[in-house]
Amino acid sequence: MSKIQSQQLRIIGGQWRSRRLRFPAVDGLRPTMDRVRETVFNWLQHDIAGARALDAFAGSGALGFEALSRGAKEVVFLEKHPTAALQLRENLEILQAANAQVWAGDALLWLQQNPEPFDLVFLDPPFGKDLLQPAIDALRLLPGALVYVEHEVRLQPLFPADWQEIKHKETKEFCFRLFEIVAD
């Protein structure tokens, strides 16, 4: 039985700026790249402090840790892979972050069973698994909430009418977008 290798990510801003955290090298886990995270958190710079955030399909936790580092009030990490979920918990202990929790299980199931409101949601599911549309459909958010979505360029997800796109960028491989939930 082979031991799962680990990799590192670097928090790029906030109180833990430049801290490095380990994450397991498991299939399908691809942390949001530093330059993309920098762009996203520039978009969100005035909306993080005091936010209640959800990092669905957390993987390495790069987005959730970045939000915590920049003043999010709370982050809930959802991660199905047991090794990745365990590493998220260990990283929270290392950072002494008491304002976060990890739910080790299916993110879609959690979203269906927990319709609680969040100010900020990160949706960056593993590519090629058809998880994005069911996650979008399961989310119930209040007006004013922000949703970051990262997906393959070839995907054309259907977004609810109350999701107004406010930012959009893409590379050859993937799109990253920011939506605000508006009143119907």
Automatic annotation (TrEMBL):
Keywords: Methyltransferase, rRNA processing, S-adenosyl-L-methionine, Transferase. Specifically methylates the guanine in position 966 of 16S rRNA in the assembled 30S particle. Belongs to the methyltransferase superfamily. RsmD family. This is Ribosomal RNA small subunit methyltransferase D. Its EC number is 2.1.1.171. The keyword S-adenosyl-L-methionine applies. GO terms for molecular function: 16S rRNA (guanine(966)-N(2))-methyltransferase activity; nucleic acid binding. The keyword rRNA processing applies. It comes from Thalassolituus pacificus. It is an enzyme of class 2 (transferase). InterPro entries: DNA_methylase_N6_adenine_CS (IPR002052), RNA_MeTrfase_RsmD (IPR004398), SAM-dependent_MTases_sf (IPR029063). It catalyses: guanosine(966) in 16S rRNA + S-adenosyl-L-methionine = N(2)-methylguanosine(966) in 16S rRNA + S-adenosyl-L-homocysteine + H(+).
